[in-house]
Amino acid sequence: MPAGYIFGVVGLFIFALTALAATLRPGGVRANWEHGIGLYALGLLVYGQYGGLYLAPPDTWMADVARILYVHVPAAWISMVAFTWAFAAAFGALMLERPKSLPVLSAATAVPGIGLIGLAMALTGVQRGLAAFFGILLILTAVECALLWIGNRFFNWTSDTLDHISEASTEVGVVLGVLLLFLGSVFSRPTFNVYWTWDPRLTASAVMVLTFVGVSLLRSSVDDPITRRTWSNVATILAYINIPVTYMSVKWWRTIHQLQSTPDTLSSDMTFWLRLNAWAFLFLSIWFVARRWRIARARALAEAPPELPPAPEIP
Amino acid sequence: MIARIIKQTFQVAYKDLLIEWRSPQRVSGLFFFALVLVILVAFTADASPGVLKKTAGGALWLGLLLASARSLDLSYAIETDNDALSGMVRWPVHPAAMFYGKALANTAVLTLVGMALTPMVVVMYNAPVQGSWLQLAAVLVLGGAALAAPGTFYALLTTRARASSVLLPLLLFPLVVPALVAASRATALLMDGDAMGEAGSWLSLLLAFDLLHWSLDGLFFGLIVEER
């Protein structure tokens, strides 16, 4: 196992432990459990950035300029991850409005999903890729539906819980996306000699960030909580599904971005620091999402109409 | 059930087109709005003929896109005026029929405006169509449909939201970037003769975008109409 993963496993362990301890605590959640993972993320970030700036070897062609990749690449990865959370949570919020359909949908997607994976084993080439892709998609849907059912049944998750997570993730994704675009243009000045190029990945990222800014604004401009929930979740799903189409279209349009680096083309020292920083960004964004989720929940509570006075006793 | 939805779809489309027919100043207003934009693009671009020719496809679609935002707003203005939409929901018209009917009507309007606008662009930008006219017509229909489907969807969201006139473009324009790229590239290629036969692949991208949004948006439309 590559050394970078140890830090991830430790972080996930802290996350699972604190979240579980907070959930199972008798009398409900009182401590802000997310500070554990937040502190860990901050420590990892400081160490990772120090490593990226001083300890990692300089790039063969771009020398020290390439050190920006220890912030740029994690920001790109984790902004996509955050948008994926927003999408999954939006889907979940829509599904939890009809919790009875969850076990049915879970089974109905698991069976063909497993079938398609089995089919992928027998096929080759493009067909194999397609079968595997849709198989994995169906199985992920089945897993999410099962998790939602458990959450709804045993942990009191409602549509609102997931809606607040979607709201939080969208905003964290937008922040990371803006960071990504800004750092990208700082990076592109010394390497491509321009601040901005109309390259597919740049363009698609910019469009992606703008799409989710739109979703965020839609959320803030609808007053009725239930309408807002449904509308912004539907808009999140559409915005997310549109990302690959946007990417394809601008890819055909023009292309100059450097080819994606793989662990084979990078020195193992560079991969280590890159992974470390990616973990730091991931845990940091979990912390941000959890903080933002609390704000969203508090706002929803403040917005809720006051409780009705008890009914007068009938003599 | 399916037959009823299809019948209702055409009824809704007929209703919308009839309203457009009875107040033709709306479609003509849309056309002149797009025309003004096309002229303005020519003013802002370098006026040398080679450059103008190259921007013709983009200008046509930019004009149509901005005009579509206005037309989509109007297409719901007729529904909210007398709360006609609630009436339609309670009639009951199936939400899918409502979506496809309105989207069809919007597609027809946009395609019509696009077809009227193309000759103007050809003349004013000195960009004679050297490729196949049939393919250009296909680009106009598919491009109109690509703007109309997400547009019909988001226009309903934004009519009920605050600051809707800002919100609709903000939600819609980034989403239709693929359609805009494909349609304007295909148009520019067809005006330039399409020597490499590339217009076909842009058309298929446009078709894929249409398929995605005409199916998904129709599916989700029920959710957003219900919540009213």
Topology diagram in text:
The complex is a heterodimer of chains A (315) and B (228).
Chain A: H1 4-24, H2 34-55, H3 69-95, H4 102-122, H5 125-154, H6 159-192, H7 200-220, H8 225-253, H9 268-303
Helix pairs in contact in A: 1-2, 1-9, 2-9, 3-6, 3-8, 3-9, 4-5, 6-7, 6-9, 7-8
Chain B: H1 2-22, H2 25-44, H3 49-81, H4 84-90, H5 95-124, H6 133-159, H7 164-175, H8 177-191, H9 199-226
Structure, explained:
The complex is a heterodimer of chains A (315) and B (228). Chain A is mostly helical. Chain A folds into three domains: 1-57 and 267-298; 83-96 and 158-258, no CATH class; 98-157. Chain A has helices spanning 4-24, 34-55, 69-95, 102-122, 125-154, 159-192, 200-220, 225-253, 268-303. The longest helix of chain A is centred in the last third of the chain and has 36 residues, at 268-303. Chain A is globular and about 90 Å long. The N and C termini of chain A lie far apart (74 Å). Chain B has 228 residues and is mostly helical. Chain B has one domain. Chain B is built from nine helices and no strands. Chain B has helices at 2-22, 25-44, 49-81, 84-90, 95-124, 133-159, 164-175, 177-191, 199-226. Chain B starts with a helix and ends with a helix. The mean pLDDT of chain B is 87. The A-B interface holds A 94, 207, 210-211, 213-215, 217-218, 221-223, 226-227, 230-231, 234-235, 237-239, 241-242, 245-246, 248-250, 252-253 and B 150, 153-154, 157-158, 160-164, 167, 170-171, 174-175, 177-178, 181-182, 185, 201-202, 205, 208-209, 212, 216-217, 220, 223-224, 226-228.
